[in-house]
Amino acid sequence: MATTIADIVGSDLCIGCGLCEAVTGGRVRMELTGAGSLRPVPLDGFRSEEEVQLVTACPGIVASPRAEPGQPVDDVWGSYRSMSYAWAGDPDVRFRAATGGVLTALGTHLLADGQVAFVLHVGADPEHPVRSRWVISETPADVLANSGSRYGPTAPLAGLCAALDRQEAFAIIAKPCDLSAVHSFSRVDERVDRWCVARLALVCGGQSRLSKTLGVLDRLGVAEDEVASLRYRGNGNPGPTRIQTVGGAAHEVTYLEMWADEATWAVETRCKLCPDALGEAADVAAADAWPGGAPVGEDQGFNAIVVRTAAGEALVDDAVAAGRLVVGGPITPREFDDLQPHQVRKKVALAARYEGLADAGAPPIAADGLRLDALGARLAADGWQAERDGAARRIEEARS
Ligand SMILES: Cc1cc2nc3c(=O)[nH]c(=O)nc-3n(C[C@H](O)[C@H](O)[C@H](O)COP(=O)(O)OP(=O)(O)OC[C@H]3O[C@@H](n4cnc5c(N)ncnc54)[C@H](O)[C@@H]3O)c2cc1C
Ligand code: SF4
Ligand code: SF4
Questions:
Q1: Is the CB–ligand 1 distance for residue 271 below 6 Å?
Q2: What three-state secondary structure class fits 383?
Q3: Ligand 2 centroid to 40 CA: how many Å?
Q4: Cα–Cα nearest to 116, from 379, 272, 319
Q5: How do residues 130-180 score in pLDDT, each as one tens digit?
Q6: 241 CB less than 6 Å from ligand 1?
Q7: Cα–Cα dist 281/64, whole Å
Q8: Per-domain residue ranges for the chain?
């Protein structure tokens, strides 16, 4: 087990969640590196008790599922109560949100129903709209204004202690690694389980460094400071990436153009080693629902959801009863595999990749309860070696 945040950052395992900033009260800040990742700075700025807490919870090296006993457990999808299609009941939410608006609908429902005082999530930074920042939404309109996927760096947990300090029930919408860190952090801060009463995850294929977005702007001939707004998707499913400039020009790039060439994705190292991109610490996880894993055109917006906990089930039932959510037909785990084939491939490769991590002398990633050995047994010997060597090479490259 690594003992310092410097080890984690030095091996490029930090995902930039922001917990370092929250725990130090902002003494350590999340800053953008030259490569376009958010990282804690300075690395020698932690008090020893802070660093002990952080190393316990850091999603760079700990993935922590929050399974409830007695539920079915699928090797790929983890513990679940139900899986189904779903979408927002309000057509405007469904249209504007990333996919079918499930996460926005659930956050909105919790607020409108008085179950939470606010939602901690992320949105575009009004001062630098190409970038993202954590945000506290106190009204359904705020939640909707911050809907949509932000593919660049975000640090939602930089807001975690500000949220806990309010001593009010709140929901968090974030990536699986963020929610894993929230769960791990609950072991050192008892306020987490008391106040963070709903945890909603987006299923996640990986976070791009800002260089991905800046590359797109570059190709369009738009400078970052000319951008007035940037939405990656939404306003349809998937909807276009839309960039509006302060001069009034608008540029659109389709989802398929945006993600056609994997070499341009600039995905964080940690994402290639991610043992839980499916939200196993969430109450409800929401994904895209395209057969084969990619859209063939625009549709009305359909999420595939995994309801994992009793609290998640109650929330979904309540939101349906209130008309804020619509639940469609059930999805079996093997049907879910077909909607997310890239997730299955990655999970099967991880046990081999973790050997490569050890070969490179990087800190191990604790993934207890995430079934990586059982999944790794599906990988053929030549594939295993290639995955192992590739992971070791990526860590070496990240360090050089
Ligand atoms: C980096 C990234 C990778 C993804 N990869 C996949 C994938 O491989 N497969 C798949 O099925 N879906 C993936 N998605 C999720 C998908 O884009 C939708 O977010 C998801 O289907 C939920 O849709 P929705 O309509 O319910 O979301 P919405 O109702 O639009 O709500 C989205 C919520 O997520 C929050 N959010 C957005 N971006 C971030 C972020 N970077 N960090 C933390 N919180 C954020 C917003 O604040 C908002 O509350 C990815 C999303 C992101 C951001
Ligand atoms: S806690 Fe978050 S910000 Fe800090 S090193 Fe880990 S991943 Fe990075
Ligand atoms: S792939 Fe995993 S580590 Fe990367 S952003 Fe998504 S949940 Fe976090």
A1: no
A2: helix
A3: 7
A4: 319
A5: 999 999 999 999 999 999 999 999 999 999 999 999 999 999 999 999 999
A6: no
A7: 7
A8: 73-208+265-338
- Residue 252's beta-bridge partner residues? 242
121 Cβ below 6 A of ligand 1? yes
Q: Say which amino acid occupies 168.
A: E
Residue minimizing CA distance to atom 8 of ligand 3: 177
Q: What is the pLDDT of residues 339-391, one digit of tens each?
A: 999 999 999 999 999 999 999 999 999 999 999 999 999 999 999 999 999 99
The ligand that comes nearest to the alpha carbon of residue 55 is 2
Pocket of ligand 2 contains residue 305 by CB under 6 Å: no
- Angle made by CA atoms 330, 336, 341, in degrees to the nearest 5: 165
User: CB–CB of 224/217 below 8 Å?
Assistant: yes
Cα-to-centroid distance, 201 and ligand 3 (Å): 11
Q: What topology is assigned to 73-208+265-338 in CATH?
A: Aspartate Aminotransferase; domain 2 (3.40.640)
| pTM strictly above 0.90 | yes
Q: Is the separation of the CB atoms in 351 and 375 below 8 Å? A: yes
